[in-house]
Design a protein that fits this description.
The chain is built from 8 helices and 7 strands; from the N terminus they run E-H-H-E-H-E-H-E-H-E-H-E-H-E-H. By secondary structure, the protein is of the alpha/beta class.
Length: 227
């Protein structure tokens, strides 16, 4: 049986992690012919997140170094044909994941759960974050010739075979790194309903500047290599 893997990076997500794990569409994926694999990659939580995960049968790994390190570790450890990255804060719905799998089956190398082409619950995203995401998304589209609406979404699926080489970027730059890596491949989107997160947001304004810098740095590297 083919496999769909879920990588859930966590850092102090005690309020949301069980909701995320319980919402993953195991039955629907089985109906589609897939086994489900779930890996929680924790960055050193001190609020009880790890204890919550240990109450389940989900594999738990400890990986310091931020979100990017967690994703890279997860990609090493998982063995699914398709790999989903989903934040552990309970803000991303799982009901569209079967449709996202179908997009991967039909040729997409990456499919995004787009908040900005879907519905954002009141209070789920600050005006600053929404504006910053739109700027970063526009920058990514301009630099790499893509047409996406939500660069920084915390829900995406990828074909594992498409991720060749090291994903560039540190911490929250990982979404931009995946965009850079797969910008010449087919990227599609499905609108989702984004809800208010459980717990405190880890994203800061400064992270937006680092993501923008990463997009420019990787573009310069590609030009130097003749891509």
């Amino acid at each position: 049986m083919s496999k769909v893997s879920f990588i859930v990076p966590t850092l102090d997500e005690v309020e949301g992690i069980k909701k995320v794990l319980n919402s993953l569409p195991e039955y629907e994926l089985e109906e589609m012919g897939y086994e489900m694999e779930v890996l929680v990659i924790d960055g050193g939580s001190s609020d009880g997140t790890k204890s919550k995960v240990k109450e389940t049968d989900v594999e738990l790994y400890i990986e310091d170094g931020g979100k990017a390190s967690a994703v890279r570790r997860g990609l090493i450890e998982c063995d699914g044909d398709y790999v989903f990255l989903i934040d552990g804060d309970g803000s991303y719905p799982c009901d569209k994941i079967p449709q996202m799998v179908e997009r991967l089956e039909n040729g997409s190398s990456m499919v995004l759960g787009s908040r900005l082409s879907g519905r954002v619950e009141e209070g789920a995203m600050t005006r600053t974050n929404k504006f910053g995401n739109k700027i970063l998304t526009g920058l990514a589209n301009w630099l790499y010739g893509t047409q996406v609406s939500d660069l920084c979404t915390g829900l995406r699926g990828i074909k594992k075979e498409s991720v060749k080489g090291m994903i560039p970027g540190k911490d929250f730059e990982i979404e931009a790194g995946l965009h850079v890596l797969l910008s010449k491949e087919e990227i599609s989107e499905i609108p989702i309903s984004y809800k208010r997160r459980k717990g405190e947001s880890k994203l800061r304004v400064w992270d937006g500047f680092k993501i923008a810098k990463r997009l420019f740095v990787e573009k310069i590297k590609k030009k130097e290599k003749g891509f």
